[in-house]
Design a protein that fits this description.
The protein is mainly beta and about 100 residues long. It is built from 1 helix and 5 strands; from the N terminus they run E-E-H-E-E-E. The chain has a 5-stranded antiparallel sheet with strand order 2-1-3-4-5, covered by helices on one side. The longest helix is centred in the N-terminal third of the chain and has 9 residues. The protein is globular, with a radius of gyration of 15 Å. The mean pLDDT is about 90.
Length: about 100
Amino acid sequence: MAPDNDKRNFALRKTDGEETSVFSGRTPRQAALKAARRLDPASSEDDADPEELRLREKGEKKVHVYEGWAWEENAPDDKPGWMPEEITKGNVSKEGVEHLDEI
């Protein structure tokens, strides 16, 4: 497991600049994947509608822009006992990086 000092915090931003949640990860993509799993899941990956995810690293003026989508699927056969039968999976695609004038 990675030490906590390797983790970075990314704030999920709305289009008006309000930051609603914070996701941690070593990379912006890892945080974006966590954020994507919070979206309303579709019944399959093909049916999922991408939504824009904007993540700003805490202490920085860079905003990482992703398209993210989520879907539900059956858990694997070798799942642990605590895992539900249906799980939410997510995926993201990086659209670019924007720079803010001020935070």
